[in-house]
Amino acid sequence: MSRARNHLRAALSLAAASARGVTTQVAAQRGLSAWPVPQEPSMEYQDAVRMLNTLQTNAGYLEQVKRQRGDPQTQLEAMELYLARSGLQVEDLDRLNIIHVTGTKGKGSTCAFTECILRSYGLKTGFFSSPHLVQVRERIRINGQPISPELFTKYFWRLYHRLEETKDGSCVSMPPYFRFLTLMAFHVFLQEKVDLAVVEVGIGGAYDCTNIIRKPVVCGVSSLGIDHTSLLGDTVEKIAWQKGGIFKRGVPAFTVLQPEGPLAVLRDRAQQISVPGSRHPGRGSCGSCPWHPCSSPHPTCGSGFGTRSGRAGHRCCGAGPLPGTWTARTPPAACRLAYAGSDRRCRAERGRA
């Protein structure tokens, strides 16, 4: 047993050395020559996870960005280059019907509610979020479930080998950890043919690597606060400017209730590019908002739409059994995002029919 374990460790050491650009000759000088270099690394799931963990961490990447203080736009350009090297173009992402969500507090739960609502009405969903709690597969989900170890392994090595094959002297062979998983999520969602994909921003919005998405079906902003000040700014207004960077011309955008300062920034961002936006009206205002109760048909595709609560019945505003401000903001915001996303998808499908 120990001999087999030693064999595996040696093979992984060689693979990791190769991934870092170390030649086999140098690896041999380090005492690794007893084991031949495999043509391909082992396809076992744990091997894929170990190789993923050799990539630059998100924390390390953020420290690098802070030190360099270059043009943040280059971060998006680098991501587009990685996307092209992986075999996709930005235009390919337009087929994913993406719901793009940013914020400081509640963006993860808003995404989770949105995905759950869409899935409950028979749509095949993709969901990309971070961080994970137990296993990295949690970050990429299909129909609410982390992708299987087999799917993770398949898509990981497919992407990894593609990036290795397309490297040259002018570029870094492998993206950092978070960027790699973002690329992998796009490949998974396209290949698995999801109906809609909910994508959670990593940090900020304007220069986050997820923001190579150019045609989401709808954008959302959860509660704003102070976070990552060294990158995003030291006031909520500056941070709001960064978060509003995910808005796209002509694409609906929604925000939960915000303080007037950051709300004004979001409004200005939206107006500059003609975004049809809206602020979430809050609890108890169902009569004035366009959300549809579950018992009413979706106006475009004919399905019922909304969320159910024991106290609120078939109402979307105030849905969910949890008390407090979180309940007043997150589930209703998710309902609006899901409604807008599915509505635009249905219209697009009818246009292609």
From TrEMBL:
Keyword DNA-binding in annotation: no
Tree of life domain: Eukaryota
Annotated Gene Ontology cellular component terms: cytosol; mitochondrion
Coiled coil: none
A GO molecular-function annotation: tetrahydrofolylpolyglutamate synthase activity
InterPro entries according to UniProt: Folylpolyglutamate_synth, Folylpolyglutamate_synth_CS, Mur-like_cat_sf
Keywords from the named record: ATP-binding, Ligase, Nucleotide-binding
Family under the similarity heading: Belongs to the folylpolyglutamate synthase family.
Name of the protein in question: Folylpolyglutamate synthase
Organism per entry: Rhinopithecus bieti
